[in-house]
Write a structure and sequence with these properties.
This protein is α/β, with parallel strands linked by helices. The protein has 10 helices and 18 strands.
Length: 499
């Protein structure tokens, strides 16, 4: 990838692989220049400290030269004007230069030229001389570079430099990981903790006798041994946490896949549900319309019989017989409607179940038990093992083996011939609710023998009035309708005449 160049001085390398190492390259994550400007890398010999320095320097040069680098997205290179490095041993017999002198010659030049636009790479800072003096020089050099604002990455084995990096606000420790069980480096960097040199462990692995190792341990200060043990414990916990993070990431990925599959299944179920609802609505409408037509015909026949009875003045009252016949025919219609209603109730039995927060429920679509954490009218938040998912309440059961049957009830229709309803007030109702009330009202009016009534819907925006009148225009039981007189409310009411 061709990395983006920033002006903030922040160097970020994600899964960076040194191009000269080929397949042997271990991906490195390096970060410098955000909350700190100096990164102190510590760890065992052959652990990859020097490779980390070289990777940071090489990738910075490649990125600034417009050359693609083998790293992942998220990598950024600062706009460095200068990159200085002191890596390797360049002692020279001809120039009378020792290892220490060679290092100091380079560092002197670096300190003279480095500024806030510089990247400084120092390998084994303070090495090649007395450890106490080398440590003091190393700290002084780092303080000078921090004061200049240079971005600095150094490697060292000195514990005092680890302590310096852990306490200076502009410096940070980094450890090259080391497996204390296999005594093998992993060549990975952990930012924020110091690393161990592991010299005694490595010497033991290379064959140094146990007696010599124990003698060396006895010569090390108690404080250093305790610190080394603490660092080993930190590394062990760090590796454990990394494995836990990887495990949780895997679980999260599986949960996401399960969630996606569940959402796909829900989409299919909803599509099927809408199709079933459409079929059911059409079936219901056909049955109700048929019942309305038949009831209307019964009432018309009943009225004709009554008129005939009054005209012919027959002693035997045919109106009574007509009423009995009408009641019988209407009861038959409502018996059919009752049968249809019970069938619908069985199909929709789940809608009658009531759920509450804290209920244990079974989710058939996932074959899992869970607990309700939150619930709304049509949906509930369910906790299942480590998953939390929102599931429609119609897809829940109160137990895994639940198969409820509706209570057997029989709808009995008794015509209320004495009921005289003359008006319907729809003010304050939603359109769908108002239309439902209107249609039910017309049915009751027909059954009660009412010829006309008025609807109070108000003026408002006119939306409710228009919906009411459109419904009346489609209803075959309505003969005519019109606005009321001004004294009655004008356009705020509608007078309806039934057939």
């Amino acid at each position: 990838m061709l990395p983006p160049i920033n002006k903030s001085g922040k160097l970020i390398l994600k899964k960076a692989k040194h191009p000269l190492l080929g397949e042997k390259a271990i991906p490195l994550d390096i970060e410098d220049g955000d909350k700190f400007t100096t990164l102190v890398i510590t760890g065992p010999n052959t652990g990859g400290k020097t490779v980390s320095l070289k990777t940071a320097g090489l990738f910075s040069l490649m990125g600034l030269s417009g050359i693609s680098i083998p790293a992942d997205e998220g990598t950024e290179i600062p706009l460095f004007k200068h990159i200085y490095a002191d890596i390797g041993d360049e002692q020279s017999i001809s120039q009378n230069l020792s290892t220490f002198s060679s290092h100091m010659n380079k560092i002197v030049s670096i300190l003279e030229n480095a500024d806030e636009n510089s990247l400084v790479l120092l390998d084994e800072l303070g090495a090649g001389t007395d450890p106490r003096e080398g440590t003091a020089l190393g700290i002084a050099i780092l303080e000078d570079l921090i004061e200049k604002g240079a971005r600095t990455i150094v490697t060292t084995h000195y514990g005092e430099l680890k302590y310096f990096a852990g306490n200076h606000p502009k410096a940070c420790n980094a450890a090259m990981e080391f497996d204390s069980t296999t005594l093998m480096p992993s060549y990975k960097i952990t930012i924020g903790v110091p690393g161990r040199s592991c010299a005694l462990e490595i010497a033991s692995r290379l064959g140094l006798s146990e007696e010599t190792i124990k003698r060396a341990e006895s010569l090390i200060s108690h404080e250093y041994v305790e610190m080394d043990k603490m660092l080993a414990e930190i590394e062990s916990k760090e590796q454990f946490l990394k494995k836990e993070i990887e495990t949780h990431a895997k679980i999260k990925s599986e949960a996401e896949n399960l969630k996606n599959k569940y959402e796909e299944d829900i989409s299919l179920i909803k599509a099927e549900q809408l199709e079933l609802l459409a079929d059911s609505a059409a079936e219901t409408e056909a049955i109700i319309n048929s019942a309305k037509r038949e009831i209307g015909k019964i009432i018309q026949d009943f009225r004709k019989n009554l008129a005939k009875s009054a005209k012919e003045k027959i002693e035997k009252n045919p109106g009574s017989e007509a009423l009995t016949e009408a009641e019988t025919r209407i009861s038959g219609i409502f018996e059919r409607l009752s049968t249809f209603k019970k069938a619908k109730k069985i199909k929709n039995i789940q809608k009658d179940l009531k759920f509450n927060v804290g209920d244990d429920v079974y989710v058939p679509s996932m074959d899992m038990m869970g607990k309700i954490l939150e619930i709304s009218e049509n949906e509930a938040l369910i906790s299942m093992n480590r998953l939390k998912m929102r599931i429609p309440t119609w897809n829940l059961r109160k137990s895994k083996n639940q198969s409820p049957t509706p209570t057997e009830t029989k709808d009995v229709f008794v015509p209320d011939t004495k009921r005289q309803v003359s008006s319907l007030n729809l003010i304050g109702k939603y359109t769908d609710e108002a239309i439902y009330e209107l249609e039910k009202f017309i049915d009751n009016a027909i059954l009660s023998g009412i010829d006309s009534f008025k609807i109070i819907h108000g003026k408002g925006t006119g939306a409710l009035r228009n919906a009411v009148r459109n419904t009346l225009a489609r209803n075959k039981l309505v003969d005519d309708f019109q606005s009321g007189d001004i004294s009655e409310g004008g356009d705020g009411i509608t007078i309806v005449k039934l057939k």
